Amino acid sequence: xxxxxxxxxxxxxxxxxxxxxxxxxxxxxxxxxxxxxxxxxxxxxxxxxxxxxxxxxxxxxxxxxxxxxxxxxxxxxxxxxxxxxxxxxxxxxxxxxxxxxxxxxxxxxxxxxxxxxxxxxxxxxxxxxxxxxxxxxxxxxxxxxxxxxxxxxxxxxxxxxxxxxxxxxxxxxxxxxxxxxxxxxxxxxxxxxxxxxxxxxxxxxxxxxxxxxxxxxxxxxxxxxxxxxxxxxxxxxxxxxxxxxxxxxxxxxxx
Length: 255
Hints:
The chain is of the alpha/beta class. Helix 3 crosses helix 4 (97-106). The chain is built from 9 helices and 10 strands. The protein folds into 2 domains: 5-114, 3-Layer(aba) Sandwich (Cobalt-precorrin-4 Transmethylase, domain 1); 119-252, Tetrapyrrole methylase, C-terminal domain (Methyltransferase, Cobalt-precorrin-4 Transmethylase, Domain 2, 2-Layer Sandwich).
C-alpha cells in the first residue's frame, strides 16, 4: 500500500538542514500536522492549498493532547489526504512516534518514516566538538530531562555516571538543577565540562560553557525559556577550541 501518512523529521531548526525527501513531501502534502517549534520557513514550503495545523506540545502552554493528534492523523488519512506529521529533529527521538504509529496501525493506515537531523548532532557541529572520541568518550547517551509529570524523570544516575561518555539531555532546561544534583551525588565530578545550546542551528543560537556544577547558575542568570540542549562529558573538555570556534563564527556572522 502507498503511504498516506509520513512521519518526517524537520531537523533542528535551520531549513537548510531539512532532508530533500522531507522538503518534497512538505511541498506536496494535503495536510501538515506540525510541532510548534518547527521553523516558519519550513512550514512556508507547503503548497497554498495545504492545511497546516499546529499540534505542538510546549511545557507551561496550552497544547494539543497526544490523543487528539492521533485522532487527527487517522481522520485526515481516512479522508484520503496525504498527511505529513512534521516533528522537530528526528521523529523517532523523544517524539512520541510509537503512539502515533500504533494509532495508524490500529486503523490499517499505511505510513512511512522520514528521519531528520536531531538536535544533538547540530549542537556538536555548533560546538565544533565530536561527541565520541577515542579513549575519552566511547559511548553517547540521549536522555530526556522532562518527564510526563512535568518534573525530572527517573534515571539510573549511578549507571550513567559510571558509563562515562557523553550525555545529551533534551528538554532539560527547567530541571537542570535537579539533574546536576543527582549526577554529582552519583559520583560525577563537579568540574565535569558542560554546555547548554539554545535555539541550536538558528540565527539566535546561543551557547553557554561551564561545568555540571556551574551550568544551573549560568542558565538562571541567562533567563528565558528558549529550547535548550544540555551536553555533559569529557569530550567537551577542549574549552579553548570551543571558544575559538565561537569567536570565528561571530566574526563571520552577517550583521
